[in-house]
Amino acid sequence: MPSQSRSLRGIFITLEGGEGSGKTTQAFRLFRSLTSQGYDVLHTREPGGTPFAERLRSILLDGSAEVVAPETEALLILAARRQHVDHVIRPALARGKVVICDRFSDSTIAYQGYGRGLDLKFLRVLNNWATSKLTPHLTLFFDIPVTTGLRRRHGQAADQNRLDHEARRFHSKVRAGFHALAKREPRRIKIVDARLSPDSVAASVESLVLDRLRRSRSITRQSR
Ligand code: TMP
Fold it and tell me: What is the position in ligand 1's atom list of the atom closest to the CA of 17?
């Protein structure tokens, strides 16, 4: 983690992936499992996580008759992220919690960078600015073929958002983006095969997370 994050005792874990990868279900399962093992856990999501950021999420994800420029989308996401980092994530990490966040900065690189075509270097600068360089300790990338993911997602009619309706090509670029990120930072970003059964995925997730938690001297479990 960058120097200004060293005073944070907690562990920051992010879950990433394309549409229909099952990461949200897995985030809930991980939260329940770690909590039952005595860890002090916060489960949150992006865009969102604070009342103000959740309002930005609704604006971002609701369908719009107006064309939304990629720059507009990126800036709103980053605005929500700043609120989330300042009001929720950093305070929880300062208290020594395990923070599980459903999406974070890597989604911006994959969706707005690789997907929308915004400049990757500039997005990295903006991400650093919006988070004061807060970087996850561990990121799980839930990888699923685009067609499988979109099929799953379109089965969940109530749960669809503006980005789900992007062309298949867009989602392929997003997936390629996550793969490029995982290749660039293999120590932080671990690929999870999201085609497997929910129980198998949960087992891989738990093993990767517990391994990371055991290596952290500052994370302790409450006795039950
Ligand atoms: P979710 O459906 O996984 O909760 O994510 C909401 C949508 O927001 C999803 O389509 C991806 C998108 N998104 C971005 O495009 N960039 C980002 O930085 C984040 C956090 C989400």
Answer: 3
Q: How far is the CA of 104 from the centre of ligand 1 (A)?
A: 9
* All domains in the chain, ordered by first residue: 3-214 (3.40.50.300)
Q: DSSP letters of 81-135?
A: HHHHIIIIIHHHHHTTPEEEEES-HHHIIIIIIIIT---HHHHHHHHHHHHTT--
Give mean pLDDT, residues 61-89.
Answer: 94
What rounded mean pLDDT belongs to the chain? Answer: 93
Mean pLDDT of 31-38: 97
Ligand 1 residue neighbourhood (C-beta within 6 Å): 46-47, 61, 77, 103, 107-108, 111-112, 161, 163
Would you put residue 20 in left (φ > 0), alpha (ψ -120 to 50) or beta? left
Distance 41 CA to ligand 1 centre (A): 22
Residue located nearest, by CA, to atom 4 of ligand 1: 46
Residue 3 has pLDDT above 50, yes or no: no
Q: What is the distance between the alpha carbons of residues 100 and 142, in angstroms, rounded to a whole number?
A: 14
Give distance in angstroms: CA of 220 to centre of ligand 1.
31
- Ligand 1 geometric centre to CA of 217 (Å): 32
CA distance linking residue 34 with residue 207, whole number of Å: 11
* pLDDT mean over 73-89: 98
User: Structure pTM?
Assistant: 0.94
What does the pLDDT average to over 175-181?
A: 98
